Amino acid sequence: MNRVKTAKQVSTVCCYCSVGCGLICSVDTLTGKIFNIEGDADHPINEGSLCAKGAGFFDLTEANKHRLKKVLYRAPMSDKWEEKDWDWALPRMARLIKDTRDAGFVKTNAKGEVVNRCENIGHLGSSNIDNEECWLVTAKARALGIVYIDHQARV
Ligand code: SF4
Fold first, then answer.
1. Inter-CA distances, 10 with 40, 41, 77, Å
2. 34 touches 25 (CB < 8 A)
């Protein structure tokens, strides 16, 4: 059976930025799985075009066999990745962030003014998170006093 001929097409909107480009998802009616995502040529904003981020949407689906599903850890100086569970990873990340922040926290500047900033941690946002998630991670970074914050969407 030709799955392209029997596919159901579903329109949606890219969640990655405020441009709001239209997408068409082709769904296999036998399996219910998405097998293609492309720009919607009838959409008034993007008229079928997508930026690199939107064009890579299909790779976020379960069809992408390379998607990471487990925590991978590489010890310092090691060339091997180890699978870990979240119960191991989350306390370790929290410990490292706390220790690093405590070591580099700046309470006042050279003039004695209170600044309360963390200068030894940077935050680089993900290209695969949406506007609301970006807000959340930025608020979290600022709550820690982090001042070096950047994001893929800036470029
Ligand atoms: S991230 Fe790209 S594809 Fe998505 S809405 Fe913005 S410009 Fe369009």
1. 10, 13, 47
2. yes
Q: Ligand 1 mean position to 130 CA, how many Å?
A: 10
Reported as a single tens digit per residue, the pLDDT across 8-48 is 999 999 988 889 999 999 999 988 999 999 999 999 999 99
Distances (CA, A) of 62 to 14, 50, 65, 95, 113: 17, 21, 7, 32, 51
- The answer on 84 and 24 residing in a single domain is no
Rounded distance from Cα 105 to ligand 1 centre (Å): 37
Please give the model's pTM, rounded to 2 decimal places: 0.69
82 and 113 in one domain? yes
Tens digits of residue pLDDT in 113-132: 999 999 999 998 777 787 78
The overall average pLDDT reported for the chain is 91
Ligand 1 atom, smallest distance to 45 CA: 8
Protein residues with CB under 6 Å of any ligand 1 atom: 14, 16-17, 19-21, 46, 50-51, 53-54
Which range marks the domain in which residue 130 is found?
A: 71-154
How far, in Å, from the CA of 49 to the mean position of ligand 1? 9
